[in-house]
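Chapter review: from sequence to fold.
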Amino acid sequence: MSLFEGLSYSSDKNVIVLDIGTAYTKCGLAGETGPRCIIPSEIKNAKSGKVVKLWDFEKKDELYENIKDFLFVLYFRHLLLSPKNKRVVVCESLLCPDVFRETLAKVLFVHYEVATVMFASSHVMSLLTLGTTTGLVMDIGYTETLVVPVSLLSPTCALISTVWLIYKLLPVNEFSLKKYFSNSKIENLLLDSATVMTDTKEEVALSSLPDCLNSPILEDIKVRCCFVTNLKRAKAIQQVVIHGADESMMPPHPRAVQYPLDGGRVLNITGKVREQGCEVLFEQDNEEQSVTTSILDAILQCPIDMRLELASNIVIIGGTSMLKGFHHRVGSELYDLLRKPKYKEHLSIETFKFHKLPAKENYAAWLGGAMFGSLETLPSRSVTRDNYQLSGKLSDWCTITEEAVSG
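The token string follows.
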């Protein structure tokens, strides 16, 4: 059954659409052009009084309480709606842990007594906003990057070995920053070169004031001050930083900027930090994998007759992809990588084409969920409260039930 079957709008105007990401949660109503709120995926623990990440938990009971409190904030402080007997669309990653998915469903059905819940793939929902059925979706999130080839908008089991190939690059942001990723590199670069102007107009090294930096500040610095440089400059920088070439070959750094801190202090961020902080996204690891190589690797694993169509329908979503210069760098690197024997001998691709999304990359999947939530086909693709209470569990997107096999 096609996802587009019965393209008529429903009269139900109170379908809740949730996209609970690792860093931020997007929430709103179906049929609207944007989420009503985008808030951090964190909640103040009622017992300890500490603010905890929604995805950081040790026991299932702890996760249940956190999700219950978090949804209370969404429903009664942002949406101002009662959840009882409402329909819900949840946009989720294909790698969403079962424990989180099952616990979320339990909270929605048992505690808030919603009528139906539909769990939709965020990659498929992002394609829905473009009106296309086939594409290569790269989701650059807070902790991981997934490249998922999609065909005919149908996540069926028969396509797992061919179309639904998932490349997980770990880590991709703040979760594993201490060793690998962009916020960590930004932090290390700042500690090496940045200075702080104190409230007494005294300039001191940032390394002597380690309390100035925390995860929210690093994330804000990355968004406001950093950018992805072009491929030519990146290669020149790599020759000096990685291969030990003469420093005279290093291109001149961009200008420094000032970032205000609390207490009247001002952080001086050098051009080196602004330019090189995000290069880790494109640096290949020991297995020669990076954000851009994952696109070509995914295409290689697909059937030959699909490769040109996938290369002509590349969709990039996720908050990290909103960095300035990111899309241009990805395109340049793809053409550069095609010259390597690994790809030149197996891929006959001359051009790559990228879709321009009708929304910002960080809530493109939510918008697709909002579009689908306004269709009359939603009830037929959702799990009802009665059915959930009978079985007490959900079927995963790749689960083959006994009824399906026998049928």
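Two observations follow directly from the output. The first helix runs from residue 60 to 79. The longest strand covers residues 24-29.
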